[in-house]
């Protein structure tokens, strides 16, 4: 079977370096290109050196145009503005895209959905298998307990993470709100002030921890007087996200245009 060639954008970032390792180790994937923005201190370094594999014949470039014949699927873990620009590029050049970046505003999300009419895109704030199972479990928890319990979503990440709450926490909130037939914007609470009064109407409250090197932890808490249910996922290595991205890239290689999520990639829906 022909290998799927991937380009990794954000190649010298925390996820980028892990994605390079995952691509090099994957039997059905070939690392076709590694892309970083101009100005990154690691530009010009061989991508292989980034992960200690020595030369792998893939050069770090700052522009997908330079390597567009070298890959079939683009994997993006960068920043929201960069992702939207890359999605425009992918739509123009007919390259499927796996997007792991988080922190999009509603305008940027709308733009990605629009571009997905012209190319297949997987947009997943968390590519770990366990988190996508957690999304599924949340539907059941919200159906059974969501109408009468206090609902809290607590997430923790490393000190360098830029967006808060995390894209995963927001997706957890959306899954619960959708199940309850509510709009997350209307029931989300991001601070503690007035929380006691807010509990009188149904709300989903978010708390964020940013500390040390936490890779990613998410808990949904459904609490009544007398009992509570907690559902927690803990990621201990970025490799779990990177392996999910490889699955998304393989799945995308034979997909029609459209916007997909990780649950579709994993066959949960
Ligand atoms: P990071 O800051 O370590 O890396 C981002 C890299 O992208 C940097 O090296 C930066 O120079 C590069 N970059 C920015 N703009 C670029 C452009 N225009 N072209 C090429 N490269 C560009 O961040 P990180 O911890 O690796 O996380 C990256 C993103 O992935 C964040 O949004 C994070 O929340 C998200 N993330 C998603 C998942 C998931 O499973 N979906 C898991 C972990 C992190």
UniProtKB/TrEMBL annotation:
Which pathway does the UniProt entry assign to this protein? Answer: Amino-acid biosynthesis; L-lysine biosynthesis via DAP pathway; (S)-tetrahydrodipicolinate from L-aspartate: step 4/4
> Which InterPro entries does the protein's record reference?
DapB_C (IPR022663), DapB_N (IPR000846), DapB_N_CS (IPR022664), DHDPR_bac (IPR023940), NAD(P)-bd_dom_sf (IPR036291)
- For NAD(+), which residues are the binding ones? 10-15, 36, 100-102, 124-127
Q: Which residues form the active site?
A: 157 (proton donor/acceptor), 161 (proton donor)
* Molecular-function GO term, any one: NAD binding
Q: Which domain of life is it from?
A: Bacteria
What reactions does this protein catalyze? (S)-2,3,4,5-tetrahydrodipicolinate + NAD(+) + H2O = (2S,4S)-4-hydroxy-2,3,4,5-tetrahydrodipicolinate + NADH + H(+); (S)-2,3,4,5-tetrahydrodipicolinate + NADP(+) + H2O = (2S,4S)-4-hydroxy-2,3,4,5-tetrahydrodipicolinate + NADPH + H(+)
State which Enzyme Commission number(s) the record gives: 1.17.1.8
Q: Which Pfam families match?
A: DapB_C, DapB_N
Top-level EC class as recorded in UniProt: oxidoreductase
Keywords, comma-separated and alphabetical: Amino-acid biosynthesis, Cytoplasm, Diaminopimelate biosynthesis, Lysine biosynthesis, NAD, NADP, Oxidoreductase
Report domain Dihydrodipicolinate reductase N-terminal positions.
4-127
Question: Would the keyword Oxidoreductase be found if you checked this record's keyword annotation?
Answer: yes
Q: What are the TM regions of this chain, as residue ranges?
A: none
Q: Which CDD domains match?
A: DHDPR_N (cd02274)
Q: Where does NADP(+) bind?
A: 37
The similarity annotation says: Belongs to the DapB family.
Q: Which HAMAP family match?
A: DapB (MF_00102)
Cite the NCBIfam families for this sequence.
dapB
The annotated subunit structure for this chain is: Homotetramer.
Name this protein carries in UniProt: 4-hydroxy-tetrahydrodipicolinate reductase
